[in-house]
Amino acid sequence: MAADRNDYRVAIDALKDILRAQKLTYRDIAKALGLSESGVKKIFSAEDGSFQRISQICRLAGTTLPELFQGLKSEMTDFTFSIDAQEFLLKNPRAFAIYWRLVYERMELSSAQKMAKLDDKEAFKILRQLDDLGLITLLPEGKVKVPPVQQIRWVGSGPLIEKLYREWGGQFLQSVAKPDLEAHKLFLIRYMKVFPKTYEDLVRAQRELEVEFVRRGIQDMRTGSPALVHLRWVAGIDDSSFMGS
Questions:
Q1: One-character DSSP codes across 69-130
Q2: CA 127, 128, 129, 130 torsion: positive or negative?
């Protein structure tokens, strides 16, 4: 089955990112599929090809073709932590640390494990628990499959979400709420009295800005480039006075 040229190249480029993250080489793929290494290189350099072959390589990388394209969706995807997952992550801060670094920061397992100060036995136990909660997928030989890079919006509430919003928002403000902030950082504090229409327009513009730059951030993350930098962004607008009522 020949794929549409654009779809094929999009799928191949996304698959390259996954293989890079899994540290799977063309030689590994060739050996697993009974192909020559040059034959595998042709698959990845071609302008069109077989979805069946891509599907085989996906399985080798611990994913599926539908999941591959799901990860390329440009629209925002709602995600809700179950109460069980929230309670587990709250009680196990090192589990949350390794989950966050694997799924959101796209860190390699060895690096995330080291930063969480976990030995192999402790790390495997946590990974198995995260797998049981549906937050990651634990693969044979201790490898981990995480959800694809995509636009995520946390929805719903619960103890973990409330804690993160409260603590991370406070930490961020403590870090950047300064009048002499460094040039590469930004913090704005404003007060105005405006018509309701102006207020609504500002809220809408903020949401549109979020959609645009989250989209661009996802595109950047999918490249797997080592040149990427962290970006924290906290925004808030309400109809209150700083001086209270």
A1: HHTT--S-EEE---HHHHHHHHH-HHHHHHHHHHHTS---HHHHHHHTT--HHHHHHHHHHH
A2: positive
Backbone phi and psi for residue 138, each to the nearest 5 degrees, phi listed first: -90, 125
Longest alpha-carbon distance in the chain: 74
Neighbour-count burial for 154-165, b at 16+ CB within 10 Å, e otherwise: eeeebebeeebe
Q: Which domain holds residue 59?
A: 5-70
* pLDDT tens digits along 11-58: 888 888 778 767 789 999 999 999 999 999 999 988 888 888 888 998
Lowest-confidence segment of 47-61, 63-77, 124-138, 205-219 by average pLDDT = 63-77
**For residue 66, what is the domain's CATH number?**
1.10.260.40
- Single out the residue of 98, 1, 105, 101 nearest to residue 53, CA to CA: 1
Beta strand 152-154 pairing with 77-79: parallel
119 inside domain:
no
Looking at the DSSP bridge assignments, the partners of residue 49 are: none
Domain assignment present for 62? yes
